Target: Alpha/beta hydrolase
Amino acid sequence: MQFVSERRLDDHVVERAFTLGEVPGILWTPGDPADPAPLILLGHPGGLRAMYPRLLARARHALAAGFAAATIELPGGGDRPRSAAAEEARTDLHRALAAGEPVDDGTVDRLVLPLVDQAVPEWRAALDALLAVPEVGGPVGLAGGVISIGVRLAVVEPRIRAAVLFAGSHVPRSVLEEARQVTIPLHVLLQWDDEGNDRQVALELFDAFGSREKTLHANTGGHTGVPHFEGDAANWFFARHLR
Amino acid sequence: MQFVSERRLDDHVVERAFTLGEVPGILWTPGDPADPAPLILLGHPGGLRAMYPRLLARARHALAAGFAAATIELPGGGDRPRSAAAEEARTDLHRALAAGEPVDDGTVDRLVLPLVDQAVPEWRAALDALLAVPEVGGPVGLAGGVISIGVRLAVVEPRIRAAVLFAGSHVPRSVLEEARQVTIPLHVLLQWDDEGNDRQVALELFDAFGSREKTLHANTGGHTGVPHFEGDAANWFFARHLR
Model:
């Protein structure tokens, strides 16, 4: 991991941009670190630059509760090379949504599964590097982002001890099966009136998770309308499981 | 309202038993009251004596967050006279559940609707009396109990500004319609693996509520397995809306 910039945003937050091979990322740590802080990995839909204001707000919120926070760019996001197959699947998805047609399983699989296969090893490599930073400690929490990536990470990465997942994207049938293998505590957000998301599939996914402790927080409103107080609820969840 | 006993449980809690006509009730107020505390009405399935330990725990939790708490006995609960029609409907319900048969709408209506019709005016009369106690102030929150009573109270009683409802009992179809008229902020608890409750009806009910702010908290576990941390979540919800 190469740090490419470091700046102190205020007394409370130090922000460092880094690269891990070809993958850019950002690490936020407390301005006045005492013990190493448990790390929250911030998921997102891809495109760090466009997502930056929201990611920074989420990072500040996590740091205010005593955590460190970090994220990396997704395959095909930002300036990272796009895959022709993924772009084609995305076009098909948008075409179906615009026409009000159901999105077929094949399209979702072509879009999501290669992304999961490529992203998950990158996030695990990022964890190796991030946990070597003196201000960062374990255990690790995962918050948000593409839910299929979150499911795979929750299954394969034992350093992730708890996850806040957003049931808000298209979910391949195979991920519903994979969800049965998840056993860490989960806090699942669902936007009840999400325009682009099938509520029934989201509820099926919640049902499928194998975790003994899982909580669904469903709120009125569309895809981007998660209420502000859910940020606090996520911090309380992580505080219960990462301390 | 006649107070029939008063005792200081510790430095933090004063418990007073009262009667309101034929209806017994309990009021818990802070041991060292400053300003009048916003009131949380504690719902329950009937039978104050059997429910007392759990009600006291909930009252203590509410008082710790700066609220007062109160409850009254339900029609047919505890020593209050039973209605023959309600007892017959309850027998039919238990027979159907024991046989693993679906409970027909008529049975649910016969059991629940007369209870709602009788209980709601009693809870409103209790509010009149409770809000005249110097240590008790408005606004009022409603927490738990028979959900059909909660729905009716949320519709007809303007002093109730926010409600935590437990989607855990049999719900008449007419209550699903009544739910559309509810507009106060709601926090709805659902036990995902509730043996005696139809999950699909509970989700329909959540969907039906007319409130702009409504949040569903669904947790793994059976009817009585609501996780301890949901007590804190309910307090945070009330703190947002009753202060």
Q: What stands out?
A: The mean pLDDT of chain A is 94. DSSP finds seven helices and nine strands in chain A. Helices of chain A lie at 48-64, 84-98, 105-130, 147-156, 173-179, 199-208, 229-242. The CA atoms of residues 4 and 18 of chain A lie 5 Å apart.
